[in-house]
Amino acid sequence: MMQIVLISGLSGSGKSIALNVLEDSGYYVVDNLPAALLPQLVTHLRGAGWMRVAVAVDMRSGASIAALPSQVNLLRDMARDLRVIFLDARDDALIARFSETRRRHPLASAGVSLEEAIQREREALAGIAELGHRIDTSDLHPNTLRTWVKDFIQVEASAGLTLMFQSFGFKYGIPLDADLVFDVRCLPNPYYDPRLRSLTGRDEPVIEFLRKTPEVTRMAEDIRKFIANWLPAYVRDNRSYLTVAIGCTGGQHRSVYLAEWLAGRFRDQVSVIVRHRSAARRAADREAALAHVAAPEQTQ
């Protein structure tokens, strides 16, 4: 069975990182292909024996990007396993990345600022963002994005919906890729227990603390019932992916615990992915700090 992964998204959102991951995983990778040429490319590569193909289609191909939705429908008939990843990021994150790399935005021109170019691209891609799995890369370390892309392609192909539970910290902002957002900041916070402060919602002492808290149990059940009641409606709407974001203050204890707990309740019904956005950010920051400390020693 041929597997096709389409990558699209905003310039500067990490498409090159995603393509490199797929190439390293054995995919035949094509970057910056006009959308109208997708069927011909797939037909050619299938004839050449390639069964895993990754293609990036974005605003660099100009007006042809408008043909992508219709081409996606056509490709679904050509390959049973078609996956679409749309990479997004906040404007401030994109501006910072272009400033750091000094790259030119593909829509920038004389009289058009970087901010205006980003807004024009966002408007042009608004319909495409709904075609597949959306990932907000605003605060993601490149290694985290690599891991998330690997996790995405390793999930078994399903004709139904993939349900993703994502924990996050409100102090970092609500993820752009969230379809449903639940605020659990009203629950008792393990952070204020010195023994639990450095742990996460995946550690047994924190799990035990939250499991024994009646408010947490009620909140968890209420969210589970809401998702269970409305999941069939999202399936009927032909949604391929549904991202449920669970947010607490820092994204370390309560949201992580509830994301894991909810994932466990739905794994026997649909394909499930779990991601911990703020926890991954802290892990990346720790790695960077350790690397910075070790760097002087390595140069001596």
General description of the model:
It is globular and about 60 Å long. The strands form two sheets. A five-stranded parallel β-sheet has the order 2-3-1-4-5, with helices on both faces. Strands 7-8-6-9 form a four-stranded parallel β-sheet, sandwiched between helices. The chain has two domains: 3-154, Rossmann fold, CATH 3.40.50; 162-288, no CATH class. α1 crosses α6 and α8 crosses α9 (254-266). β2 (28-30), α2 and β3 (52-56) form a beta-alpha-beta unit. It has 300 residues and is an alpha/beta fold. The protein has ten helices and nine strands. This is GlmZ(SRNA)-inactivating NTPase. Residues 162-278 form the RapZ C-terminal domain. Residues 2-153 form the RapZ-like N-terminal domain.
In CATH, the architecture of the largest domain is 3-Layer(aba) Sandwich
- Please give the radius of gyration in angstroms: 21 Å
Protein structure class: alpha/beta
The total number of structural domains is: 2
CA(first)-CA(last) distance = 53 Å
CATH homologous superfamily identity of the largest domain: P-loop containing nucleotide triphosphate hydrolases
Instruction: Categorize the overall geometry.
Output: globular
Task: Record the strand order, biggest sheet.
Answer: 2-3-1-4-5
What oligomeric state is this? single chain
